Structure formats: C-alpha cells, structure tokens
Amino acid sequence: xxxxxxxxxxxxxxxxxxxxxxxxxxxxxxxxxxxxxxxxxxxxxxxxxxxxxxxxxxxxxxxxxxxxxxxxxxxxxxxxxxxxxxxxxxxxxxxxxxxxxxxxxxxxxxxxxxxxxxxxxxxxxxxxxxxxxxxxxxxxxxxxxxxxxxxxxxxxxxxxxxxxxxxxxxxxxxxxxxxxxxxxxxxxxxxxxxxxxxxxxxxxxxxxxxxxxxxxxxxxxxxxxxxxxxxxxxxxxxxxxxxxxxxxxxxxxxxxxxxxxxxxxxxxxxxxxxxxx
Length: 277
Known about the structure:
Enzyme class: hydrolase
CATH superfamily of the largest domain: Glucose Permease (Domain IIA)
Radius of gyration: 19 Å
Order of helices and strands: HHEEEEEHHEEEEEEEE
CATH class of the largest domain: Mainly Beta
Distance between the termini: 39 Å
Largest sheet: 9 strands, antiparallel
Strand content: 15-25%
EC number: 3.4.24.75
CATH architecture of the largest domain: Distorted Sandwich
Structural class: alpha+beta
Domain M23ase beta-sheet core: 170-241
Oligomer: single chain
Protein name: Glycyl-glycine endopeptidase LytM
Number of helices: 4
CATH topology of the largest domain: Glucose Permease (Domain IIA)
GO molecular function: metalloendopeptidase activity
C-alpha cells in the first residue's frame, strides 16, 4: 500500500475514532474533559493535509509534466467550473487525484440550466438539468480499469440549504465511506504511458462498458448523471498517474481543439471533434 493510500485510510479511521469516542463518552460518562475526544479529529486533518501535499504539490516531479492532449469527453455546448486553468489544485485539494480536475455543465442555450436559488426550490430533479443523460465519450483509445454503476442519481443541491447540507453533512459522510461514494458512478480508463482518465457522477445504469473492455477515442461509454458528491448533474473529469484515485497524483490535460476552459467559459465540442464510430 502506498504512503498516499495509507494516509487516506488513516484519515478515515481517525474520523471514525472521533465519532466512536464521542458516542462512548456520552454513553459511559467518562470523567475526562470532552475536548480530548477531538484529538483523533485533529490528527485526521493533520494526516489528510500531509496526504494532500503528497498528492501533487508544486514541487512534485509529476506536477511538472506536460499536459496530455486528449479528445473532449462530451460534445455540444458546455461551461466550465472548478477549472485548473484558474488555479491548482482546482478543487482546493490534491486528494483523490484531482489536482487538475475540471467540472463541466451542459449549456445548450442561455438559461437552459436552472439557476442557483437562495431558498426555493430546495432541490430539483436531475431530469430538470440539460446535462442529465448527455453522452460521455472516451477521450482516447484506452482500456477500462474501473467501472462502478450502482449508486442512485439524487436531487440537486442548488439552493443555499441544499448546498450547506452537501458541504457539512452529506460530503462528510461520503468522505468517511470512501472515494467511491464521493465519485458516485464512475469510470477509470488506462490511456497508456502511465496516464489514467477518471469520469465521475455518471448516471446509474448508463455505463456501456465494463472492466477489461477496450474503447476507442470518441466512443460513448456512459451518460452524465448526478451520483456521488454532486450538487447538480455535471461531469467531473480528471487525468491521474494511476488507476486508484486514493493513491494517484493528478496530471494536467488539454482537450484537442479546445484547450482548458476557464471558470464560467462557454465552450463547444462539435461532433466533428470526436469519432463516434
């Protein structure tokens, strides 16, 4: 087990130890000060901070590699969010191999995607978003090395109460449950030369490939969903230097004919940009 993987396992174990200590303290009325129960939680975040540092810090040799050019994973009109063109790590942490990850949302026309609301509606059905069900494509000729397809597509978290619930409650529970619960339904492709592509938050039951399959660039492999740690239907895409997001470092990418769109930038991947055969 790599040091990076061991750190993530220790992080989750210390979080569980904190919960167990709090419950035991309440049940058995132990005499020491309750704040001592927070020690495993403090240690957990020390561990994950170190693990995140190993995950692709600026002084890492892997972080200095040239961007890998691949085809875009979608076709049509989309916008970017949490883009590595604006900052790295793009999602605030190196964990889960997401140093250079990007989120993209379907924007077929202005106003087609429901806007964020402060209070109401608290949540929307995934079918209300144009990204839901959109075809997801292989970015290169590759081998499928991970395929998970059993998690539900939940309601959106696109109100202030919904977003707070995602950040403070749901996200913490998913972190304890492991990377698979964060990614939701997902695929990892081995592109060769030590590069792997991960696709997260896919629609349940939409995967058209399984582990061991060979795929061609532009081949439809799944549909966009709202599973895992997701606020609304979108695609989370990243390149990594290994197949396990807990152990891998993020790798930079560029999409052929598009580059790396910045936060809020609208881009279009025309059908001609991918080979659907």
